[in-house]
Amino acid sequence: MPLTPALPGPTTIHQIEPSTPNGNIGMVDAVAAWCHQHKLGDEESQCLQKLGFKVGDDLDELTDKMWKFAGALSLCCMWILRAYRLSKDVSVVLQSSAQDG
Prior knowledge:
4 helices, mainly alpha
């Protein structure tokens, strides 16, 4: 009777967790999703992440100094603010429709 080699025992698989500068992957995912939804790219997403942006924050309150800290070029800042204001307008319309219905 031929001997069959023993099957290797179960091994432990370690998953490497993605890391973020502030350790909050949920926030980064939400910002990236918001940027994707509003057709903004990685540069804009990284800028918002550096600012600590959370969806729902008021971007109109940011100063030029804050934008510069985040490394936002003028057009990048303009695109982010345009997307933010459009999203704000849409949410106001949706809330109004929900209250009317």
